[in-house]
Write a structure and sequence with these properties.
heterodimer; A: about 250 residues; mainly beta; Nuclear Transport Factor 2, Chain: A; OB fold (Dihydrolipoamide Acetyltransferase, E2P); 2 domains; five-stranded mixed β-sheet; five-stranded mixed beta barrel; B: about 400 residues; alpha+beta; Peroxisomal Thiolase, Chain A, domain 1; ten-stranded mixed β-sheet; 15 helices; 12 strands
Chain lengths: ~250, ~400
């Protein structure tokens, strides 16, 4: 522990010891001491937000960085028994009872990998998912009247034609709306919150809107109307599925 | 022959179990439902064996026929489940019961919703409505969908965030006078609201309803029969349900994206059927799965101005009984009274006509119920006093 943490901005001196101690109790698996550092009104959310390997052997406070609104970000690296390293960024706030963690996340920020990725049971959207495997974004379109259809349907809602096509579309669009999700609603989201979901309006698909997680959404100042471009994350492993992501351009 | 529902049916009884913290009910959802139905019948002075119709919504697990069998009713003449996830069907369920008695299909129809975490699991309102085109992107809950809608309403339409807070504050304000509310004795101040953790931006904790274990029921009967029973009838003046163009199950491709789903034709039908000037409600129970969609509902109905003008209108004084211009969620609503997918809002809409609310609007003759904003289906009911017939 000879390396001193980097202090960026106006960081209160007493926080160095607080954050170093926090790293040590987390690495030691001391749950009571870990929880005592959490802001009391959000312990459940904080517990579910970060993901760490089971057996930790060391921690190191890398950096403390002053942020707006009196928050201070602590970057702590945890080393597991297998030698792997995990960095968490905890944000600390000064309350009457002392410094407490009010947010925490894994770094780097990565989108949640959802087991549900892939066609729905009735297969209506299967060509979309097959397209992603080929590196293409395909959107349903009526072969008869040209209507763009999303979510996919078994029939064209406009002309009632059953012949539906799946043209490849240029994945360029604009942010129609967005949300940054903080609550780890399921264990799959742990280690990935907060993440930004963008609903993007695709110019090449008649203004149909497709959802996707925003790459580099950590700290991004997202606004409706910003230009985004689709990128396809490769399948996360055997049985996994490539998934569409957005990136601000 | 009249094709109108107006004044043909009424709510004659209301009943509810306590709102338990989720996961803590001592009984099953079916048992709670039975308790609520018995309470509604007792309130009406009706032998529960005389119930002959059962209506629910939001995929309630207690099927009407099983409920009827458990109660040993003399005859089942009507059973309806309103399609559509979430609470969008709550008013539609009342309307279905009213339609049944108005058309002579049944005489005493109960509308109920019962829920326990043990039976239904968490977030049962969303079951089946988050296919992979949403869930693969981490969008798993109504909170996130409603957050997307609300974000655009704030950013593009210009509705200020203060409008959301005012609706939440009004709910908590009312709950302080309602000893049965989960938030009774737990007032909410601005700092607590604004300092609460994010759920999904722009929604923080207190913008979100949180499911309780519990059940509630209302007894719907014909107007004639209601006058024979015990309490003051709350007449059904109008009922609508619907989904506008491109609305349902469109993976966030609804045309009117920042609407709550009460499209103009539906709203016009509601007031025309009620025989009232648009917006002529004395008090409103508006379903707040989340604060943003509730505000969008009031805008859809023309009760609150759209865009930036919603800010000066949506204030706690304006939204609270007895003197506010638009008292909403006078028992505390889903946010502060308790959340069993909006069934509690029905009971409170009826109490306002009876004059028995903990936050009574003096002389309330027209009481509006709005169900399930942003759900695949939305619905509304206008209740009226005898003076409105």
């Amino acid at each position: 522990m000879t390396d001193q943490p980097v202090l960026a901005g106006d960081v209160p001196a007493e926080l160095v010891a607080v954050a170093e101690r926090h790293g040590r109790v987390v690495a030691a698996g001391d749950q009571a001491a870990t929880l005592a550092d959490f802001r009391a009104d959000r312990t459940g959310q904080l517990i579910g937000s970060a993901r760490l390997p089971d057996r930790l052997v060391a921690s190191r406070l890398l950096c403390l960085e002053a942020e707006p609104d009196g928050l201070v970000a602590a970057y702590i690296r945890y080393t597991a028994a297998d030698g792997s390293a995990t960095v968490l960024r905890s944000r600390w706030i000064r309350l009457d009872e002392g410094w407490r963690v009010t947010q925490v996340r894994n770094l780097p920020a990565t989108p949640p990998v959802m087991a549900s990725a892939g066609p729905r049971e009735d297969g209506l959207d299967a060509p979309h998912w097959a397209g992603l495997r080929d590196g293409e974004v395909r959107v349903q379109r009526c072969a008869r009247c040209g209507q763009w259809i999303w979510a996919p349907q078994p029939i064209c809602p406009r002309c009632h034609g059953f012949e539906l096509s799946w043209p490849v579309v240029e994945p360029a669009g604009t942010v129609y709306s967005w949300t940054r999700t903080w609550q780890p609603f399921t264990p799959e989201l742990s280690g990935h919150v907060p993440f930004v979901v963008v609903l993007a309006e695709l110019l090449a698909a008649g203004g149909r809107r497709l959802l996707g997680v925003l790459r580099n959404g950590d700290g991004a100042d997202v606004r409706v109307g910003q230009a985004v471009r689709g990128e396809i994350d490769p399948a996360p492993g055997p049985g996994g599925r490539p998934v569409l992501r957005w990136r601000l351009t | 022959m009249s094709r109108s529902l107006r004044g043909a049916a009424a709510v004659a009884g209301i009943g509810s179990t306590p709102y338990y913290k989720r996961g803590t009910s001592p009984h099953s959802a079916l048992r709670l439902t039975l308790e609520a139905i018995l309470a509604a019948c007792a309130d009406a002075g009706l032998d529960a064996h005389d119930v002959d119709g059962f209506v629910s919504y939001a995929s309630d697990l207690s099927e009407g026929l099983a409920v009827g069998a458990a109660l040993g009713v003399r005859e089942i003449r009507w059973s309806t489940m309103v399609w559509g996830g979430g609470g969008g069907g709550v008013a539609a369920a009342v309307n279905a019961a009213a339609a049944a008695v108005a058309s002579g299909q049944a005489e005493h129809v109960v509308v109920y919703r019962g829920l326990t975490e043990a039976d239904d699991g968490r977030q049962s309102y969303g079951k089946g409505h988050f296919p992979p085109l949403l869930s693969a992107h981490g969008v798993l809950t109504p909170a996130q969908v409603c957050a997307l809608r609300t974000q655009r309403m704030l950013e593009v339409d210009g509705v200020p965030g203060s409008a959301l807070e005012a609706l939440v504050q009004a709910s908590y304000w009312h709950a302080q006078q309602n000893p049965d509310a989960v938030a009774h004795g737990r007032p909410l101040d601005h700092d607590t609201y604004a300092g609460a953790r994010w759920v999904s931006e722009p929604l923080r904790l207190y913008d979100c309803s949180r499911e309780n274990d519990g059940a509630a029921a209302v007894l719907v009967t014909s107007a004639e029969r209601a006058r024979d029973l015990r309490p003051v009838p709350a007449y059904v003046l109008a009922g609508v349900q619907g989904a506008g163009p491109d609305w349902s199950e469109s993976a966030e491709n609804s045309a009117a994206y920042t609407s709550a789903g009460f499209h103009p034709a539906l709203v016009a039908r509601l007031w025309a059927q009620a025989g009232l000037k648009p917006g002529a409600a004395d008090v409103v129970q508006v379903y707040e799965n989340f604060s943003g969609p509730a505000v969008a509902s009031l805008i859809d109905l023309g009760l609150c101005p759209p865009g930036a003008a919603a800010g000066p209108f949506m204030t706690r004084p304006n939204l609270t009984a007895p003197a506010g211009v638009l008292p909403v969620n006078t028992a505390g609503g889903n946010l502060a009274e308790g959340f069993v997918h909006g069934i509690g809002l029905v009971l409170e809409a009826v109490r306002q006509i009876r004059g028995t609310s903990a936050n009574q609007v003096p002389g309330a003759d027209v009481s509006l119920l709005l169900g399930g904003p942003v759900a695949p289906l939305v619905s509304a009911t206008v209740f009226g006093s005898a003076a409105t017939l």
